[in-house]
Amino acid sequence: MPRHPHCLAVLTALAFLATSNASAQTLQEGPPPQHRLVYRNLMVARLNPLGLLDEARINYRYRLYRSESPVLRDNFVSVGLAPALSPAFGRLGVVVELQPLSILQLWGMYEFIGNFGTFRQLQSFPSALSNFSDTELDSLDRLPSEDTRRPYSNMGSQVTLGATLQFKVGPVVARSLFRMVRPDMSLRDGNRVFYDIYYDVLAPNQGWYFVNDADVLYQTGRGLTIGLRWASSHAFYGPSHFSPGELQGNPNTTHRVGPVVAYTFAERDGAQFNSPTVLLMVNWWLAHRYRTGADSSAFFPYLALGFSFSGDLMPVPSSAER
Question: CA-CA distance, 252 to 231, in Å (whole number)?
């Protein structure tokens, strides 16, 4: 399990940048207390696709058992809230986490989602083969207000099931964050899929898709971490996600890869404001229906700049007391 303080802060930021809640916020001295109330927050701006987001997690954690073993010590069961806000949408989720081992976390989240009808969100389509390129989304956004093809406001919910595996060998940390997502949105009549700017996928309404983020990080010391991310997604479209008589296929699987650089300014066990971290990610699209030359150049990368921090809202006993 990664225990280096700077690396843990980077994993927190990366987990949020992957739109998840997978970091354990491990204490560095001794096992965690029986009860913890922790929070995490990320502010992030990105390009290709465009996005601006602030999201948080507030969790109560109960330690399952006491152990000094690095593989076992960071264990808990947790329940909490997951609010998120952007200029395009607002979300509020209920999160349950189970971490039986320091290296493994299983979690589930149920979210209520409201799209504001701004910044091309929400835009829905009749088929998984529909054009959802940036050029098409911009064109639809400029249609007259009475045109039913324009983006519109709506409500819905979403279930996300996730698993995170992470470990450390010397200065190298590896992590895989896997999520299965099932949205249930109120779409316009005749529409079966929608563009989800959160994950940059053409999502099957009332269907499943997965998103996975794999990171390999190297700790250089003095708060600096560098690494590589590989991100992928795939939607499981069914017959109900295509127009009648349409030849069914899935051209919407995505892959991107690129470097990650992060700097953590400071970390202190149990602090209310902890692990302020700046993170920059530059990924190039290897597979995307529109971002590898069809609509935008394959040389134009995915860019994300984030600032994260975390903390304990309850006083944490000293390591000796714990």
Answer: 14
- Which tokens sit at 226? 């560098």
What was the pLDDT predicted at 320? Answer: 65
Q: How far is CA 47 from CA 136, 258, 279, 287, 302, in A?
A: 17, 14, 14, 17, 6
Predicted local distance difference test score (pLDDT) of residue 19: 42
d(C-alpha 58, C-alpha 17), whole Å? 17
Are the C-beta atoms of 110 and 116 separated by less than 8 Å? no
**HSE of 202 in the Cβ direction (CA atoms, 13 Å)?**
26
- Vertex 74, ends 259 and 8: CA angle to 5°? 25
Cβ contacts of residue 302 below 8 Å, gap of 6+?
46, 47, 48, 49, 256, 258, 281, 282, 283, 284, 285, 291
Instruction: Name the DSSP class of 13.
Output: H
Phi-psi region of 163 (alpha: psi -120 to 50; beta: other; left: phi over 0): beta
One-letter identity of residue 118: T
Q: Which residues of the chain have pLDDT under 70?
A: 1-24, 319-322
User: Token pair of 101, please?
Assistant: 């081992």
Cα separation, 96 vs 115, whole angstroms:
24
Q: What does the pLDDT read at residue 24?
A: 45
Q: CB of 89 within 8 A of CB of 115? A: yes
Q: Which of 106, 101, 108, 133 is nearest to 120 (CA)?
A: 133
Q: Which domains does the chain have, with CATH numbers?
A: 5-312 (2.40.160.40)
Which H helix or E strand runs over 52?
A: strand 51-62
Whether this model's pTM surpasses 0.85: yes
